[in-house]
């Protein structure tokens, strides 16, 4: 990267705060769905429907979590509510909005990286890579930049040109 060139990439700590905001948003959604399902099961099946409600909420929470990020990142917001609130967006190397397919791939890789990959190494590496990418960003070829960034992201071509 040339001296004086703007640095649009957003690092680990601000993305962690965005993830915490998203966790709160998802918790609100899950609680809302749990209350709705509890009311539905009580009205239709009676008091003994607690186990069924638990599994329904578990399924709905999983669906909400898996669909929340891809839908938001591929939308006009170009990021989840947490990213949007902190002035971040997810883009491809051309600085364009990512596709739903790319966003879904990024989310699945994020979930795997956050839960299974050597104690979150895929997430922690955001703080140490040149373009502030986690493993999910690298594999999906995406970048998290400031909302104000327009155009292609500045990448070195590794050939000195």
Question: Strand order across the biggest sheet?
Answer: 1-2
Oligomer: single chain
Q: What percentage of the residues does DSSP assign to strands (E)?
A: under 5%
Gyration radius, rounded: 19 Å
* Topology order in helix (H) and strand (E) letters: HHHEHHHE
List the uncertain runs: none
Distance between the termini: 11 Å
Domain count, please report it: 1
**Largest sheet at a glance?**
2 strands, antiparallel
Total count of helical runs of at least 4 residues:
6
Helix content estimate: 55-70%
In one word, what is the shape? elongated
Strand elements, count: 2
Rounded mean pLDDT is 84
Q: Decide which structural class fits the backbone.
A: mainly alpha
Description:
The chain is mainly alpha-helical and 161 residues long. The protein has one domain. It has 6 helices and 2 strands. The chain has helices at residues 12-45, 50-73, 81-85, 100-115, 121-124, 135-140, and strands spanning 88-91, 143-146. It has a two-stranded antiparallel sheet with strand order 1-2. The termini are close together. 24% of the residues are buried.
Map the helices and strands.
Layout (H helix, E strand, L loop, with lengths): L11 H34 L4 H24 L7 H5 L2 E4 L8 H16 L5 H4 L10 H6 L2 E4 L15
Antiparallel strand pairs: 1-2
Brief characterization of the structure:
The chain is mainly alpha-helical and about 160 residues long. Helices cover about 55% and strands about 5% of the residues.
Note the main attributes of this structure.
161 residues; two-stranded antiparallel sheet
């Amino acid at each position: 990267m040339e001296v004086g060139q703007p640095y649009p990439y957003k690092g680990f700590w601000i993305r962690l705060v965005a993830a915490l905001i998203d966790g709160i948003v998802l918790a609100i959604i899950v609680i809302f769905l749990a209350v709705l399902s509890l009311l539905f099961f009580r009205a239709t099946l009676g008091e003994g429907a607690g186990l069924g409600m638990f599994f329904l909420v578990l399924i709905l929470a999983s669906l909400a979590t898996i669909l929340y990020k891809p839908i938001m990142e591929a939308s006009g917001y170009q990021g989840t509510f947490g990213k949007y609130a902190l002035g971040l967006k997810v883009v491809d190397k051309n600085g364009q909005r990512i596709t739903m397919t790319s966003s879904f791939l990024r989310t699945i890789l994020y979930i795997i990286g956050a839960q299974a990959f050597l104690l979150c190494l895929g997430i922690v590496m955001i703080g140490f890579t040149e373009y502030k990418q986690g493993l999910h960003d690298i594999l999906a070829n995406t970048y998290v930049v400031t909302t104000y960034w327009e155009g292609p992201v500045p990448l070195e071509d590794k050939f000195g040109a």
